[in-house]
Amino acid sequence: MSNPNSFAIKIIGERINPGFKSTKAMFEEKDLASIQALAIRQVESGAIFLNVNLGAQAMTDRPFLIDVIHAIQSVVDVPLSFDVPSVELTRLCLATYDRERTGGALPIVNSITEHRWDAMTLYKQYPFKVMVMASESVVDGVAKNNKTAGDIASTAKRAALRLRDDYGMPLDDIYIDLSVSAIIADTEGLNRATLDAVRLIGGDTELQGLHMTGGLSNIGQQMPAKAADGSDLKHCLENAFLTLAVPYGFDTVLGTPWRGYAPLPEDHYVLKAYRNFLEQSGSNALRAVRKFYKA
């Protein structure tokens, strides 16, 4: 099957996740055949990794977590990304993972932050790639959310160089996770900060070779289905973000592979509205949101 993604980005398939009602039902019924079919569909649609997230069920049913990993790896040969809530479960996933099945490719541990670094204790025994959340940092021993481009970029750089220098991890094995906020409530310029951080990270010569990634599903949360011009508003917003971010090195999406991602033309209604939104803050940002769906 041909890859529907015409954009120069890689896809980490996100669908093995209880946040999707159909997948949650598969987990509840322990329907491994349907989980396998979902894995195959994502790979055939272009995913080069598959994220595995069982939510709270991973904590209460570890044998099922093992069964899911075995079942997926029995039908696809792409590497996996493990999103589990504890270092003990991360160890279980890494120990279960079959590198031979993937031709030696390493899995991704999704994710670490400056204040949740304990998964790195497993790196020597079970080598892996890592997803680093740049939206969270530690200042004077206190965890905080980053809200400026400078804070996001400096957190990303600190973590990446620590992984490189202290653990010998190649920059190519590091994925910086940049949070993409819902525009419906973004009165603090968080979308603008994320895009500015992409530019800062992408332009840093010390960080050449690492990857920038993020989930885009939040950006159109609680927005109408259609834009004022009749286009698919949520999907166009995802592509608007990518149109601005990909040229600066944002190269991987945690998303649904068959949605397809493509740059928007400069005169596209949603891209123009998104550019206008990025220039606003406070109540002006909320007024700018209305322009997406009210002509």
Q: Name the structural class.
A: alpha/beta
Write out the CATH superfamily name.
Dihydropteroate synthase-like
Straight-line N-to-C gap: 39 Å
CATH architecture: Alpha-Beta Barrel
Query: What does the overall shape look like?
Result: globular
Low-confidence stretches: 1-6
| SSE arrangement, N to C | EHHEHHEHEEEEHEHEHEHH
Overall structural domain count: 1
Helical segment count: 10
Please, what is the oligomeric state? Answer: single chain
Q: What is the CA-based Rg, rounded? A: 19 Å
Q: How are strands sequenced across the largest beta sheet?
A: 1-2-3-4-5-8-9-10
What does this molecule look like?
With 295 residues, the protein is α/β, with parallel strands linked by helices. It has a single domain (10-290), classed as Dihydropteroate synthase-like (TIM Barrel, Alpha-Beta Barrel). Helices cover 38% and strands 17% of the residues. It has an 8-stranded parallel barrel. A two-stranded antiparallel sheet has the order 6-7. Strand 6 (136-139) and strand 7 form a beta hairpin. Helix 2 (32-44) packs across helix 4 (62-73), helix 4 (62-73) packs parallel to helix 5 and helix 9 runs antiparallel to helix 10 (282-290). The protein starts with 9 loop residues before the first strand and ends in a 5-residue tail after the last helix.
